[in-house]
Amino acid sequence: MKPSRRAFLKTTSAALLTTSTLTQTRNLFAAQKTLRLPLALQLYSVRALLPKDYDGTLGEIAALGYREVEAAGYFNHTGAEVNQAMAAASLKLVGSHHSSDDLHKKLDEIIAFNKEAGVSYIICASPGHKDPSAPVNPDRNHAFTLDDWRWNADQLNQFAEKVIAAGMRFGYHNHTPEFHEIDGVIPYDELLRLTDPAKVTFEMDCGWVIVGGGNPIDYLRNYPTRISMLHVKDFKPDTNPPIPAELGQGHIDYAPIFAQAAKSSHIQHCFVEQEGFNMPPTQSLKVDADYMRKLGILS
After folding, report:
1. In whole angstroms, how large is the CA radius of gyration of the chain?
2. How many CA atoms lie within 13 A of 260 on its CB side?
3. pTM here?
C-alpha cells in the first residue's frame, strides 16, 4: 500500500524533529565539554598551616575532596617524610615549585629531594636576572629586561635536561611580569618561542595572566601543546593591587577557560591556588572546591 500524503509528511516531520533534537543534543554536549581532572591544590594556599601541623593539614585538604597537590616548600621535612605524609592522606604530590635562584644554586639537591618525595614535575616558579649585580627596576612588572627573559629561556632548557635525565618533567609557572610588553615583545611569548617543547612545559597561572593583561583562552588556543597544567585563582573586581577572592566570588569566569582547555588533550593537572583568605581557610578551600566541581573537576 502507498502511504497517504498526510502520513508521509507526518513521518518526515518526525524524522526531521528527531534529527534536529539529536543535533541540538550533540551541540549541547559539545558546549558543555570541560576538563575532567582530579581536584588539585597548590599548597602555597596553606603555607601558614603546614608548618604548624603538616600531616593534619594534608588530611583536612583530602577531606575537602582534593586529590592532587603541588608543593611550595617542605617545612623541614625530608623527602621520605613528605612521601609518607602524602600517602597517609591519600594525596598525589604532582609537582614542586622552586625559584630560578635556587635551581641555579642547588639543582642536584632539589632533584634528589623531589625524586625521593615522589614528585613528577619540578617547576621554576620565578625567573632570575642574567646579571644579579646589575641594578634592578623596583617595579616588579618591569624588573626584567628582554635580555633577561631570553637568558631565562636558555636556563630553563638547561635545567630541564638534568630534570628529565632524573626521570621527571620540568616546567615554568608565570606571574604578571611575563605579560608586560618590552620593545614590542611579550616576554611570555618569548619564553614559549625559545624554550624546547621537548624539554619545557608550561604551567599557566590563569589568574596572573589576566591581571598581567593577557588572555588565557588565547594562549590555550595558540599553544595547545605547550601548556600541560593550569593554576586557578580569583580576585575581587577593580582592585589595585589585586585582592584575592575565593573562586566564583571575584571577577574571573573559568567556564570559558576550561572549555578551551578541554579542547586540548595536553592539560593534565589543574591546581586551585588561594592567595589569601576572606574566611577561615578550610571554609575558603571548600568554596573553591565546590566551584571547581560545578565546572566538571572531579573529587
Report:
1. 23
2. 18
3. 0.89
Note the pLDDT tens digit of each residue in 198-215.
999 999 999 999 999 999
The count of other CB atoms within 10 Å of the CB of residue 30 is 10
Hey, which bits of the chain come out as E strands?
40-42, 68-71, 92-99, 121-126, 169-173, 200-205, 227-232, 234-235, 244-245, 269-272
Burial of 241-270, coded b for 16+ CB within 10 Å and e otherwise, reads ebebbbbbbbebebeebbbbbbebeebbbb
State the angle between helix axes of 79-88 and 100-117 in degrees (0 to 180), rounded to the nearest 10.
60
Strand partners, 185: 182
Residue 123 contacts residue 169 (beta carbons within 8 Å): no
Residue 131 DSSP SS3: coil
- Measured CA to CA, the distance from residue 244 to residue 42 in angstroms comes to 15
C-alpha grid cell, residue 68: 592532587
Q: What is the pLDDT of residues 10-35, one digit of tens each?
A: 444 444 433 344 444 344 334 456 78
- In this structure, are residues 201 and 194 in contact, taking their beta carbons and an 8 Å threshold? no
- 48 pLDDT exceeds 80? yes
Amino acid at 188: Y
Q: Is there a contact between 93 and 86 (Cβ–Cβ < 8 Å)?
A: yes
C-alpha to C-alpha distance for 191 and 174, rounded to whole angstroms? 10
Round to whole Å and give the CA distance between 100 and 249: 33
| Number of helices followed by number of strands (H, E) in the chain | 10, 10
**Domains annotated on the chain, with CATH:** 36-294 (3.20.20.150)
Specify the length of the chain in residues: 299
Given a cut of 70, whether residue 107 has pLDDT beyond it is yes
